[in-house]
């Protein structure tokens, strides 16, 4: 089977939503030998991909009748949610783990990975965004309950947005905060805007509705949790978009 750096599910679906999952996979492509020299235990961690996020994205796509674009390479190969000039585009050390396969990456190898993986995924996002004028991007990510030995993160879900564009995120946060069992973080556990990232490139610069969802990954490690969160978020996103458009 021919390798592709991205997967599109439901390309012909009619919803204005476009669901994206930048860190869907922990796959190391065949032309890199299928490994970066890390043990399987590290490749199963958040350092290699967003655990559970792909399952949530697929469920949202089904329920919202929305196309889903998923990466098909590990963020450790090259990070599709970073700008081309971002110094963290190819990580050599991440959350205590040295990445042997990245230790000697030079400018030529960086350029090759951009052409082989990053740019085809980015082009697929651009093509799907252009399918209609009213596209609203929902980027699905997950976060680890603890990073770098810091205190446990209390949020079940975070909603990220740029300071100047919360048109979709504001009503979504309102709807989530109305649910008494949830701890919701605005621009948690990460800042809401990273210059050059996928939302910046495909939503903020063109002026498209957008939001980035971060679900704590211990809640979505298994299929049942992924389905639960997809089912929970889908009607809230539909209502949030309706409010954003009024």
UniProtKB/TrEMBL annotation:
Pfam family, one: FGase
A GO molecular-function descriptor: hydrolase activity
UniProt keyword terms in alphabetical order: Hydrolase
GTP-binding as UniProt keyword: no
The name this protein goes by in its record: N-formylglutamate amidohydrolase
Organism: Maliponia aquimaris
Lineage: Bacteria, Pseudomonadati, Pseudomonadota, Alphaproteobacteria, Rhodobacterales
